[in-house]
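Researcher: Please translate sequence to structure tokens.
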Amino acid sequence: MVTPADVTSTTPPARKPLEAAAPPGTDLPRIVPRRRVGRWATAAVALLVLAMVINSVVRNDAFQWDVAGRYFTTTAVLDGLLLTLWLTAVVMVLGFLLGIPLAVLRLSGNPVLGTLSWGYVWIFRSTPLLVQLLFWFNIGALYPTLGLGIPFGPQFLTVQTVNLLGPTLTAVIGLTLHEAAYAAEVVRGGILSVDSGQTEAAQALGLSRLRTLRRIVVPQAMRSIVPTAGNLLIGTLKGTSIVSVLAVHDLLYSVQLVYNQTYQVIPLLMVATLWYVAVTSVLGVGQYYVERYYARGSARSLPPTPPARLRARVTALRRRSPRPTAADVPGSLGGDR
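Model: Translation complete:
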């Protein structure tokens, strides 16, 4: 008989666990991960090819690794490396100091300044870097003297161009002007990546254009600027090797001076290659952490860093491996029983 208590009760009946619902004496089906045969086969082939390449490089006597190791830290090579690093840093700083105003002028409402900025970028991106460097190196043939005075009038101070521009200064000027064109496009792309609603909200709050650019637009644009600027930095580091045609004693030119005397071309080129690889690897690590810094706020939580992932994997492996007991250790009391 159904009682009123049974009708008015709102408590649902307790569900039996899944194990209890199964017939006695039977086990639940075990979930087996999907076997990805193609993935493992491809990985094995790739590792085999990589091992063959490494073996051919390491065991090839033509590379003369002993000679490369002997010249790797010589004074001439290290001096060239320092000049390469200095040239890269100076060109990057000056290039972005010139590229940021060019990007702002390109985005301004002034048609004259915007057209001039576009024309600068168009000219320096359209001509090869080597051609630009050779033009600046031979600037004395075009303008023998440079003067300071009234425009289209008399000059008060003149100087000989040949005595003013040396090889290193010519390389700095040529690389900086070339770098500024690409830096302007990098900055302009980063500014355009910020939603226009951010600027409209800042204008509604009464912020000036300069403060809006400095406090709102630029911090958000850095998420798009940093990856491209990091690639530009690495490209500039490798691109400085082209100044060797101007007899600037960078890393490549210093190596060339050595193998022109010893005729050991391959090992000296490997010295330059290893130094370029080492420096670009360090710059790549720095770029990763800078990108991570400016990525704050774009996601709820940042992905773990490679050291954190490595520590997590080591911890997981330690937890999976069973700890040895006293009975497993030979010679212990448990094993003698």
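Researcher: Any highlights?
Model: Strands lie at 145-149, 155-160.
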